[in-house]
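Onboarding guide, step 5: your first structure request.
Type a short instruction followed by the sequence, for example:

Predict the 3D structure of this protein.
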Amino acid sequence: MINVNNEWGELREVVVGNIGQWTEIHPDFSFRLYYQDNLKNVFLEKSIKLQQKVILQRQEDLDNMAKTLESEGIKVFRPLPLERLMPFETPDFKDWPSPCHNPRDQFLILGDQIIETSCQWRKRYFENDLLKPVLMEQWRQGAHWVSSPRPLMTEGSFDLTHLKTHGGVDLEGWVEDEEKLEIMFDGAQCLKFDQDIVMNVRTKNHWLAYEWLKRHLKFTGDKYRLHPVELTDNHIDGMMMPLAPGKLLINSGSMPGKLDQLPDFLKSWEIIKAPDVSKEVSGESEVKLASQHININVLPLSPQKTLIFDDIDGRHNQLGDLLAKHSIEALPIRMRHCRLFDGGVHCASLCLNRDD
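The system replies with structure tokens like these:
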């Protein structure tokens, strides 16, 4: 039964991502807009090819993550794998689908609600269908299931005013029409702290999403308080992660200078600064799409235990030693190519049931 109100309660049920037959990424307008300077021009001509070896390694690590969680007594669900890579078309754009390998992005599980979020990338337009068998099972058990408005995703739908550089997107002659801007956000922009939800809001699309979510939560009982912050471009779980009541893990890069932006209820929490591993990641693809400080993208299993990862062998990890000093046991696994696939173990999972 769906029940998630925070990020640290003892984990009972979870989704772990799946890849399947994914061979390349087509960097269209929305993809370039999202990643901006993380993309190099050589990869912008046609597509980003994904070596079969890399796909198999990532799938192997996701399967091992699922087995590790099951060994902890946690019930694990998996999305359907992407079986065919073929183009799709809407009245407004064409793209190629992506697998549900980072389910955290497309859904916000809140209390007994499944909230499908309004995707920001065209390639993910039909990704949620791969998780529908799991969600139908949860709905039959009593979960409430809603979706934020699905955007048309025309070029006029996106707010581009925050761009510092072109980032591979042609902005020449672009004029914003605010009436065309649409509600767009990812579930990974939100972190749950019982009655409080901290939501990273950067663009006008995000602000529309914040207003939609605030109205929705008020309509469904006004149980939650929504706190907008501007800590990063998009996903907040590359900046900080709550590990237990009163303990907040932050990245060692830009986050220490942004602590004053946190909501008041977090300013009394113990701050745990993650080791800087931005220069130590090995075995990665040349394409690095995710944060340099992706090591904080961990998955708390309870207030006393957290799943952590590295890309080498699952054992060499400074973060585990640090967490032990704060009375948190680290359960390490290997997760290769996290920057290419834009997610650690938090992004690669979606919590369905936690003890309050």
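Each response can be followed by summary notes, for example: The first helix runs from residue 29 to 35.
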